[in-house]
Amino acid sequence: MKIKTSVTLSKELLDAINQRGKRYKKSRSDFIEAAAWAFIGQLKRQELNARDLDIINRRADYLNKEAAEVLAYQVPL
Fold first, then answer.
1. What is the overall mean pLDDT for the chain?
2. For residue 22, how far is the Cα from the chain centroid?
3. What is the mean pLDDT of residues 31-41?
4. Residues 31, 24: contact at Cβ < 8 Å?
5. Residue 37 lies in a domain
6. CA 10-12-13 angle, 5° bins
7. Rounded CA gap, 65 and 70, in Å?
8. Are 26 and 34 in contact (CB under 8 A)?
């Protein structure tokens, strides 16, 4: 469901939206919606990456110990 809303944009941004919207045959609304969804997707990826990095950092000592044990099993070439 679409809901009509009002936003205030700079003239430069509106000009860029209009120009690219025409090039890709998208209305202003469609262009802005696609850009907002793309930005939300980027934020979600950043949040997941931060969560994963936090998990790795919390488990770093264990992971490093496990890696050292695995390396001890390697045969010298």
1. 94
2. 26
3. 97
4. yes
5. yes
6. 70
7. 9
8. yes
Measure the CA–CA gap between 28 and 16, rounded to whole angstroms: 10
By residue range, what is the domain housing residue 35?
A: 11-72
Residue 53 located in a structural domain: yes
| CA pair distance 54, 58, nearest whole angstrom | 6
For residue 40, give the H/E element and its range: helix 28-58
Q: Is 2 inside any structural domain?
A: no
- State residue 68's pLDDT score: 93
Note whether residue 25 is domain-resident. Answer: yes
Whether pLDDT at 32 is above 90: yes
Q: Answer yes or no: is pLDDT of 49 > 90.
A: yes
Number of domain units in the chain = 1
In the chain, % helix, strand, coil (3-state, to 5) comes to: 75, 0, 25
Residues 6+ apart with CB under 8 A from 69: none
